[in-house]
Amino acid sequence: MDRIIEKKTWTTRKVVTIIAITSFITLVFYLIFLRDNTSKLYVDRNQLTIATVKQDKFQEFIPIDGIVFPKTTFYIDAIQGGVVEAIFAEDGDMVTKGDTLLKLLNTAMELSYMEQETRMLAEMNNLQNTKLSLEQNKFLRQKEIVDLQYRIDATKRDFERKKSLYKKEVISDMDFEDAEREFNFTLKQLQISLELQKLDSISREAQKRDIETSLERMRENMKLLRKNINNAYVKAPATGKLSSFNLEIGQTKSVGEHLGQIDLLNGFRLEARIDERYVSRVFDGQEAQFSYAGKNYDLHIDKIYTDVSNGSFKVDLFFNNDIEPKGIKRGQTVQIRLTFSGETDALIIKRGSFFQETGGSWIFVLDESGDFAYKRPIRINRQNTNYYEINEGLQPGEMVIISSYNNFGNKEKLIFK
Question: For the whole prediction, is pTM greater than 0.70?
Answer without folding.
Answer: no
